[in-house]
Amino acid sequence: GPGHAETMQYLDLVRQLWALLRDNPTMRHIAEMAGRLQRLGQAHKKCQVIPAVGRIKGITVGGDLDRILPAELAGLRSQNRLHRLSTLSKIMGKRALQYEMQGEESETRGPIIVLLDESGSMGGEPEKWSKAVALALLTTATQQKRAWWLCGFTDRVTHTHIVTPGQTGADTLLDALRMRATNGGTAFDPPLREALRVLAQEPELRKADIIVVTDGEAPLSQDVAEQVNRHRKEDNLHVYAVLIGAAAREKSVLHIADALYRVSDNPERDSATVAPLIAQIA
User: Fold this and answer.
1) Predicted confidence band at 108 (pLDDT cuts at 50, 70, 90)?
2) Full DSSP string of the chain
3) For 22-40, what is each residue's pLDDT tens digit?
4) pLDDT per residue over 85-96, tens digit each?
């Protein structure tokens, strides 16, 4: 990537990636889906229009109903029909007096934690989608030099991978994506407990958001749910859930997630559904 010198180490990594994609149609499909998700996420971010929010800076001209001066809006209640129409024309034409707001830039995007369900029920197409979502998120984080932590889980934590700011992370991603879904069951408590431990003990991940990628088919204990929600309230922790599969169940993660995103079986529709998450997190 930009800023990284071309060395034999990087060339060896490129050869490994090329061999993996050349010989493994599944990995090639995952890479293609991840690329599409990244592009849609970037496009979604560019299309978003977020009005500045903050203190009043002055008076300007426009048609934003939330900011139009009360004196201007009063014309809509006039007994004179021509006056009402004139006021409406000013608003529609964006010529009404309104407050000019001075907004504050939001804090730089922080690190992310991805909990990736690799249980038996995630085999096949759900596994492709889940890894594509993870790949899109982690690749974007790596490009932006943000720390990330990936945790694969079934009914226990099966593997973890951490990348600190500035690392390429490509070899770590390669190892992580080679892991396959197993015949084990699913349990949310082990990965969430481990994620909370990492948040507390790893300085570079202290302000991370948590993304759970799963089909939702697992119980969540009240104790762990309360711990997560306490961190959401006290430490401004954000938790997002990506539910994979048309039959994905949301009941378990509903109580801890700030937002839910679904991926079922329609690539065109579902890519656009997950794109807001890519844009929001990345």
Assistant:
1) very low
2) -TT----HHHHHHHHHHHHHHHH-HHHHHHHHHHHHHHHHHHHHHHH------EEEEEEEEE--TTTB-HHHHGGGG-S-HHHHHHHHHHHHTT-EEEEEEEE-PPPPP--EEEEEE-SGGGTTHHHHHHHHHHHHHHHHHHHTT--EEEEEESSSEEEEEEE-TT---HHHHHHHHH----S----SHHHHHHHHHHHHH-GGGTT-EEEEEE---S---HHHHHHHHHHHHHS---EEEEEESTT---HHHHTT-SEEEEE-S-HHHHHHHHHHHHHHH-
3) 665 555 555 555 555 555 5
4) 888 888 888 888
